[in-house]
Specification:
Length: 295
């Protein structure tokens, strides 16, 4: 981080999700707080709690999680670290996966499971209402409309403030919006993985927030173009990748995740990193093969 950069998520500006939840445009994803294989407790619980608290200290007021992270562990850590929550903190979670074991994920977006998953999230997060609740992924053996209708019903009951979607196509979004307003879409997206380009454009047109995950395209290491630009700007590769996302569209709210305070601070530094147009264009020309869904 250079001397002129401000270490605050607020430096990225704000976006209002669902018309009433104004958040800084650098959020935090809490998946990596769990153990190996996104399973069980973290190796160092104290560090995990400290990372969450530091995120909020640095201006993060959107934390994204899911009942399947742990399972349940991520949500429990958020409550332990931050409850009672700051008045401006928005917590987004998800339901629709089951976890048989480490690195194992199975679909279950049935209305019954979603209702049970929501109740579990409310209990773990110590909330009476979830600010943003995502359908984690469409389930091929359950009607998509039935899944969304179940979330709409829970919203009507006052248990969900806003319904959102994850790992979806534009068709899914359009079908869902016929049932209930959609506050945000969370898909894999990065400078190197623009399969959801058309969804970003759709969200921008319709004032729907877009929360990208895997900001490096899930590559094992940063692309050469990112490394070059990072050296030029005296920034980390991940900060450059995040700065590209912020420049791509005003509706994008990145949610980079980490279990390290050092990496958290590096990520937050991206909120104030000015990416020159030439560097943005160079990154926009990069393309990597798509990878499997999970987020």
């Amino acid at each position: 981080m250079s001397q002129t950069q401000i270490l605050s998520a607020a430096a990225a500006g704000t976006f209002t999700i669902g018309g009433d939840l104004t958040v800084n445009r650098m959020g935090y994803g809490a998946m990596r707080l769990t153990g190996p294989g996104i399973w069980g407790p973290p190796a160092n619980k104290a560090t995990a709690l400290a990372t969450l608290r530091q995120a909020v200290e640095l201006g993060v007021n959107l934390i994204d999680t899911a009942d399947s992270y742990g399972p349940g562990v991520s949500e429990q850590l958020i409550a332990e670290a931050l409850y009672p929550y700051p008045s401006d903190l928005v917590i987004a979670t998800k339901g629709g996966w089951e976890r048989p074991g480490p690195n194992q994920w199975t679909h279950n977006a049935s209305p019954k499971h979603l209702a049970e998953a929501l109740e579990g999230s409310l209990k773990r997060l110590r909330l009476e209402r979830i600010d943003i609740y995502h359908l984690h992924a469409p389930d091929n053996v359950v009607s998509f409309e039935a899944s969304v209708e179940a979330l709409a019903k829970l919203r009507d009951q006052g248990k969900i403030r806003h319904v959102a979607l994850s790992n979806v196509t534009r068709e899914h979004i359009e079908r869902a919006r016929k049932i209930v307003p959609i506050a945000d879409v969370q898909n894999r997206y990065s400078f190197a993985d623009r399969e959801s380009d058309y969804i970003v454009d759709y969200c921008e047109k319709n004032d729907i927030a877009f929360l990208p995950w895997a900001p490096l395209g899930q590559a094992k290491e940063a692309h050469d173009a990112v490394k070059e630009i990072a050296e030029e700007l005296q920034a980390t590769p991940l900060a450059v990748a995040l700065a590209w996302l912020l420049k791509r569209s005003p509706v994008i709210v990145p949610i980079p995740g980490t279990s390290s305070i050092k990496h958290l601070e590096e990520n937050i530094a991206a909120a104030s990193l000015e990416l020159p147009q030439e560097a943005y264009d160079r990154l926009s020309a990069v393309s990597l093969p798509p990878v499997s869904l999970r987020g």
